[in-house]
Specification:
Keywords: Electron transport, Membrane, Mitochondrion, Mitochondrion inner membrane, Respiratory chain, Transmembrane, Transmembrane helix, Transport. Its main location: mitochondrion. One of its GO terms (cellular component) is mitochondrial inner membrane. The chain has helices at about 10-20, 35-40, 45-70, 90-95. By secondary structure, it is an all-alpha fold. It has a domain at about 50-80.
Length: about 100
């Protein structure tokens, strides 16, 4: 007839415990439970958090990339040049 599968009941319980993803499971609350309850539960809060995170990321990313660009191109950019060195007497006469 049909072969009977021998299953260890303790192994079945352990597998069920490890596969459970509910917050009220035997494993306890999941690691993202606080994140879900504070930010993702309400749509308005979630969208606001995404927009705020995007703005913060944009400011930080812009400052970091600008500082890297400035350090790699120091002395080559327009605002690094000391224009007082290039001033001549002819320039003073033209200003008057």
């Amino acid at each position: 007839m049909f072969a009977r599968r021998l299953i260890n009941p303790a192994a079945v319980r352990a597998a069920q415990r490890s596969m459970s993803t509910k917050a009220s499971s035997i494993n306890g609350k999941g690691p993202f439970n606080v994140l879900y309850n504070t930010i993702m539960r309400n749509n308005v809060t979630y969208v606001s958090a995404v927009i705020a995170g995007t703005l913060v990321f944009e400011v930080v990313y812009g400052n970091v990339t600008s500082s890297i660009w400035e350090s790699l191109n120091y002395g080559r950019l327009y605002h690094h040049i000391d224009w007082s060195q290039f001033k001549s007497d002819d320039d003073e006469e033209e200003e008057e």
